[in-house]
Predict the structure.
Amino acid sequence: MKNILKIWLVDNTVNVDNKDDKIGQLESSGNLSLKDILDEMHKEDTGLRPETIEHVVKLYNRVVSDLILSGYSVNTGLYHAVAQLRGVIDGGKWNPEKNSVYVSFTQDKELREAIAQTSISILGERQSVMYSHSLFLPVWPMANIPSPSLHSM
């Protein structure tokens, strides 16, 4: 499958000195659930039954999650994941109201190689759009604090 990312050119709000300075904003292709991914995997004609593929993927997810949250650094070839901590630990005691666990994911060799083969299609200029280059959400159930509403960010 040839990967193509579609982007809009938007004003670079960081560099206000150059009004012609543009950055790319990704045009979303949509959201996919685990079921959607499993359906795509089944289309590959692996000879495996759909329920077998689902079992293996869910087992993989559970095992990788357990390993990361047991302190292991996990390298899959696609990504590298490691648990990290936030907050100052006062008095040598973990405080879920001030401290939290999150998992950091970074691209690994397979994803970097796929990125190098990905094309960019510029759709044109989009006017008056607020741009955010990233959004960080910690592992909320682990932090014992309510999840923020994305609409309030």
Q: What stands out?
A: Residues 50-68 form the longest helix (19 residues). Residues 136-153 have pLDDT under 50 and may be disordered.
